[in-house]
Amino acid sequence: MALLLDLIYGLAVCLGWPFLLYRRLKRGPGSLSLRERLGNVPSRPVSAHCVWIHGVSLGEINAARTIVAEFENRSPETIVVISSTTQTGLQRARSLYPKHTVFRFPLDFSFIIRRVLRRVRPSVIILMELEVWPNLIEVAAAQGIPVMIANGRVTEEKSMRRFKRPIIRALARRMFRRIRWVGAQDETYARRFVELGVPAERVEISGSVKYDAADVADRIDGQDRLAEEMTIDTSAPLWVCGSTGPDEEAQVLDAYKSVLHNVPYLQLAIIPRKPERFDEVANLIAQRGHTCLRRSGAAPLVPPNVQQPHSVFLGDTMGELRKFYALATVVFVGRSLVPLGGSDVMEVAGLAKPVLVGPHTDNFAEAVELLLASGGGLRVASSDALAAAVMGVLRDSVRRERMGRAARETVMARRGATALTVSRILDLGQIE
Fold this sequence. Notes:
This protein is α/β, with parallel strands linked by helices. The protein contains 20 helices and 14 strands. A seven-stranded parallel β-sheet has the order 3-2-1-4-5-6-7, with helices on both faces. It has a seven-stranded parallel β-sheet with strand order 10-11-9-8-12-13-14, sandwiched between helices. Strand 6 (181-184), helix 10 and strand 7 (203-205) form a beta-alpha-beta unit. The longest helix is centred in the first third of the chain and has 26 residues, at 2-27.
């Protein structure tokens, strides 16, 4: 099986090398990190036990924070290493875990995976959410290394459809049968893991560790400095639109224009999900007649032929989204007005902020439904509906407070997934 997978990967590389070369030229050498991609990762210090945690990108790396912290408390002698697939995930991991070994996930060729396992020597491998790789699971199983999925979720439209394709189905079932334990976020995800091939007795509903990761606080360190440096007026309302996606910022700016007619002192901050879109969104803000004030310190973009333009704040740095949320009066959580699956609502809820989302929230379906049912959030279907919801929340302070309180209580009531997950890891990895 490993040889077959290697042949498939080799064919994919042969066909895809022009794209890889283009990406390297566009994003710079760090976008590929060939040394680590080929398995030349740091060798870990000698220790009785090691846990390897892998997350594809920013969201999964953030979610792993509580698992890493729980290990530091319950098994401080155990070494934890972290890997990520994307550049943004890698940067975030190095920022969050400066005391731990962090590396880019290698290419999933069997000989490369064996090289990594020799260097890392993990007692157990933890894959966050659904970051499964066939050769990693195949080779680890052959070496007796348990592979587990933490905070597991399987989307119907994307993941289930892909794994059910005729060519992939048999390979997927073989791969999922080798998973030793799955901590699924909810009953729906648990059922899907079983359908994919994980033995039912190995699937457990753990809840989401993101409830544990959400800061339950009224203030976040650094929020006042952020406000001061960006000239955000903390005495006036601030609408924060976080983790926005393509074609969504235009709808947000349409809604903002409408709201300004009724609430002329409202401030707007937009924080795009992907850093490669920062310049694109900055130009869009200026084209719409606003001065774009950038968190990075880049020169403001001033719209031509506009007298007294409103300023719009652009969060074009990494790792500061929570600070923007902490300053917000109302929050729209992005990638939900467009069909991108939505973004994490829990960190907003933990800060007791009213939450607005669009119709596309498949990636966080349970959390969003719980938030809506509690009264902590509102769903909108369009730019016009978004404007109306923002105005409604701004005009009613009692409602705004009630929504924030309900959102926080939703988070508090569902904590505990981290402790359960770490207990299972310790048991399966035979870590004391």
